[in-house]
Amino acid sequence: MLVQKASAAQKELVLEGRLQVTGVSKDKTGQFSQGLVSAAQMVARETGSMCEAANDLVKGEASEEKYYFHKKNIN
Predict the structure, then answer these.
(1) CB of 34 within 8 A of CB of 60?
(2) pLDDT tens digits for range 59-73
(3) How many CB atoms lie within 10 A of CB 13?
(4) 3-state secondary structure of 40
(5) What is the pTM of this model?
(6) DSSP character for 23?
(7) Can you tell me the distance from the alpha carbon of 60 to that of 30, in angstroms, rounded to the nearest whole number?
(8) Considering 11, 18, 46, 55, which has the largest number of Cβ atoms within 10 A of its Cβ?
(9) Residue 13 in contact with residue 35, Cβ under 8 Å?
(10) How far apart are CA 72 and CA 60, in angstroms?
């Protein structure tokens, strides 16, 4: 799952112009690592958001939809 998220994050960085695609193998490894780190950060943020939504749900301050939205983003 993390590798899939890393690939998606890497593509997003390329589309945003924050990451350049080159033909050099060493650069590809560095770019993949950067994508992997970005994906891990995204999963961590969504996990935190999911926990907050679950807490709000238990307290009656949020709907199940909010919880499932964040849960879906992690999968």
Answers:
(1) no
(2) 999 889 988 888 887
(3) 16
(4) helix
(5) 0.57
(6) S
(7) 45
(8) 46
(9) yes
(10) 21
